[in-house]
Design goal:
This protein has about 475 residues and is an alpha+beta fold. It folds into three domains: about 100 residues, OB fold (Dihydrolipoamide Acetyltransferase, E2P), CATH 2.40.50.100; about 60 residues, E3-binding domain (Dihydrolipoamide Transferase, Irregular); about 200 residues, Chloramphenicol Acetyltransferase (2-Layer Sandwich). It contains twelve helices and 17 strands. Strand 16 and strand 17 form a beta hairpin. Helix 3 runs parallel beside helix 4 and helix 5 packs parallel to helix 6. The longest helix is centred in the middle third of the chain and has 18 residues.
């Protein structure tokens, strides 16, 4: 009896996966549990195992292609001569089957949507992922106007944001009036702040054009300046915006478009911070098997501050601000595949050794391309450190659905004034970007001030 090999669902939010590489060839014998192929989903590349013993008779989805989860990607049979005509489908047939029965993650669909979304045979049905439907509803976007770029033309979340980016900036009243008057906003020039289209612009565009008349002599005399054609820039290379790069682009664009971001900066005296790390490194490196770093200390400090200022450990869900029970600190890490945010769960309950060990285990998996789904999900606050690249300060983008992110600059010796005397101190700049929809400026400043206190007085971590 033939056994189907399916695209596994590796996380609650996974909707599709890309086969990176087949590790077994057609006709090759496999044992149950053997690694058949590697699959990339979200920001992780994991291994998929054989569900049965036998022979890999047919590969239905070649390497490099993406399909929805639970889609058959291969066939295993007990013998090499077993008939697989009834279940043997090529990539085209698999694509058609997946379109007619695209799986839906019901954990992300509102109760009233579930029956409708799973009815993919209904005439005129628009195929869209649950996240895409949610974003379309939030932004009052008609799905039928959007061309999907997901598997088999399915509309995915990035398509919603791409559509919104193409639309001109306009006030809600301008959009309403444009709809009533039948004015295409793409033909209207905005006179509002930043070129935004306002109501008056729409009404002007809808007004009938004045009757043609003689052209004034002064106007006729003004000949337009000659247009000088400049050589077009040559394209050296191209890279498809998909995979990890596509995910990063989608999430960063979403954050920039949907949050009311404000960034606070503060300069911190990190002299005691540097001394504490130096002493710890000398005292515990041999026993722990690793040298504690600045990121380990900062992660613990932020976790403790989040426990004290719970309003920063929050997220926005619809029209509700949710305060979260667990403090899960995300640490942004640069890898060859791109930026990953590794999540240390319940960081406020960990000691420095446990925090550092978990962080290093995750970094090792990330750089090998073997991150686990839990390594990259569930964060409640993110830290991004560019100090090692000689960056002093920057404005980080909030990692949705979190309320804020902390940017860390380099530590640098600078002259400072203390008690009327100029001395040299190790200074560092912290940048707190937060969503003003969830938190006001003063409470966010108090939270940043608390982190500053921890950095300038590391012994407070012992309390």
């Amino acid at each position: 009896m033939a056994t189907e090999v399916i695209m596994p669902k590796l996380g609650q939010t996974m909707e599709e996966g890309t086969i990176v590489e087949w590790l077994k060839n057609e006709g090759e014998e496999v044992q149950r549990g053997d690694v058949l192929f590697t699959v990339e989903s979200d920001k992780a590349t994991l291994e998929a195992e054989a569900p049965a013993r036998g022979y890999l008779r047919k590969i239905l989805v070649p390497a490099g292609e993406s399909v929805p989860v639970l889609t058959p990607v291969g066939i295993i049979t007990r013998t090499l001569d077993e008939d697989i005509s009834a279940s043997s489908q090529g990539p085209a047939e698999v694509a058609a089957a997946s379109q007619s029965a695209a799986p839906v993650d019901v954990t992300e669909v509102a109760p009233m949507e579930r029956a409708e979304d799973t009815d993919s045979t209904r005439e005129g049905r628009v195929f869209a992922s649950p996240r895409a439907r949610m974003r379309a509803q939030e932004n009052e976007v008609e799905l039928r106007l959007i061309e999907g770029t997901g598997p088999n033309g399915r509309i995915v979340e990035r398509d919603i944001y791409a559509f919104l980016e193409e639309q001109p900036k306009a006030t809600p009243m301008a959009r309403k009036v444009a709809a009533e008057l039948g004015v295409d906003l793409r033909t209207v020039s905005g006179t509002g702040a930043g070129g935004r289209i306002v109501r008056a612009d729409v009404e002007t565009a809808a007004a009938p054009a004045p009757a043609a008349g003689p052209v004034p002599a002064t106007t006729a005399a003004r000949a337009p300046a000659p247009v000088v054609a400049l050589p077009a820039a040559e394209v050296a290379s191209t890279e498809p915006l998909k995979g990890l790069r596509g995910i990063i682009a989608e999430r960063m664009a979403t954050s920039a478009q949907t949050t009311a971001r404000v960034t606070l900066f503060t300069e911190v005296d990190a002299t005691a911070f540097v001394e504490a790390r130096t002493r710890l490194k000398a005292a515990v490196t041999e026993e722990w098997g690793f040298a504690p770093g600045y990121n380990d200390l900062l992660g613990l400090m932020v976790a403790r501050a989040l426990r004290e200022y719970a309003y920063m450990n929050a997220r926005l869900s619809g029209d509700e601000i949710q305060r979260l029970d667990h403090v899960n600190v995300g640490m942004a890490v640069d890898t060859e595949r791109g930026l990953l945010v590794l999540v240390i769960r319940d960081a406020d309950r960990l000691g420095l050794r446990a925090f550092g060990q978990q962080f290093r285990d995750m970094v090792g998996r990330a750089r090998e391309g073997k991150s686990l789904p839990d390594d990259l999900s569930g964060g409640t606050f993110t830290i991004t450190n560019l100090g090692m690249f000689d960056v002093d300060l920057f404005t980080p983008i909030i990692n949705l659905p979190e309320a804020a992110i902390l940017g860390v600059g380099r530590i640098q010796a600078k002259p400072v004034v203390r008690e009327g005397q100029v001395v040299v101190a190790q200074m560092m700049t912290l940048s707190l970007a937060f969503d003003h929809r969830l938190v006001d400026g003063a409470p966010a400043a108090r939270f940043l001030q608390r982190i500053k206190q921890f950095v300038e007085n590391p012994y407070l971590l012992l309390g």
